[in-house]
Amino acid sequence: MADQTFIMTQKNYDDLKKELDYLVKVKRPEIIERIAEARSHGDLSENAEYDAAREEQRSNEGKIAELEYQIKNADIRAEDKNKTYVHLNSVVKVLDEDMEEESVYTITSVTDVDVMSGKISVESPVGAALLKKKVGDKVKVPCPDGSFYTLKILSIG
């Protein structure tokens, strides 16, 4: 099975490396210290402090593994300032013609997604449909049920 690739800018990549460095060099030792302290309190079978520290360790190690995977499989793209077509980091205003609603999306890497702020992945159905399109273009976005809806690109910033 082929590894998944993560499309991102150099800044996204550098941010991931910085976060990984923090988790490995700062947070991991802090957690190990808390585990050692909790162990020193005796009986581990009823030690909530120990259990919490071990759970935090599992979570931290999971995040480290996730970041290492994303960094290893990064597909770094040059930042493009062109506003004539949609690309990574474009801010796109669209009209959903069926619902008669306008939305603004920022097309980001999967590592930068924040749906509540309108930041969607370049690999999401909407992001993928908008990619490389121009103002005035209409794109069909697939729905999970197999149907489609249409978005019209109003502006690109």
Explained architecture:
- The structure is a single chain.
- With 157 residues, the chain is α/β, with parallel strands linked by helices.
- It has 2 domains: 6-76, Orthogonal Bundle (Helix Hairpins), CATH 1.10.287.180; 91-156, Transcription elongation factor, GreA/GreB, C-terminal domain (Chitinase A, domain 3, Roll).
- The chain is 39% helix and 24% strand.
- The protein has 3 helices and 7 strands; from the N terminus they run E-H-H-E-E-E-E-H-E-E.
- It has helices spanning 10-39, 48-72, 125-130; strands at 6-8, 74-76, 91-96, 101-108, 119-121, 138-142, 148-156.
- The strands form 2 sheets. It has a 5-stranded mixed beta sheet.
- Helix 1 (10-39) runs antiparallel to helix 2 (48-72).
- The protein starts with 5 loop residues before the first strand and ends with a strand.
- 22% of the residues are buried.
Which terms would index this structure?
5-stranded mixed beta sheet; alpha/beta; 157 residues; Helix Hairpins; single chain; two-stranded parallel sheet; Chitinase A, domain 3
- Helical content band: 25-40%
Please tell me how large the radius of gyration is.
Answer: 21 Å
- Quickly count the helices: 3
The average pLDDT is: 92
Specify the overall morphology.
elongated
CATH class of the largest domain: Mainly Alpha
Instruction: Describe the main β-sheet briefly.
Output: 5 strands, mixed
CATH superfamily of the largest domain: Transcription elongation factor, GreA/GreB, N-terminal domain
Give me the secondary-structure category.
Answer: alpha/beta
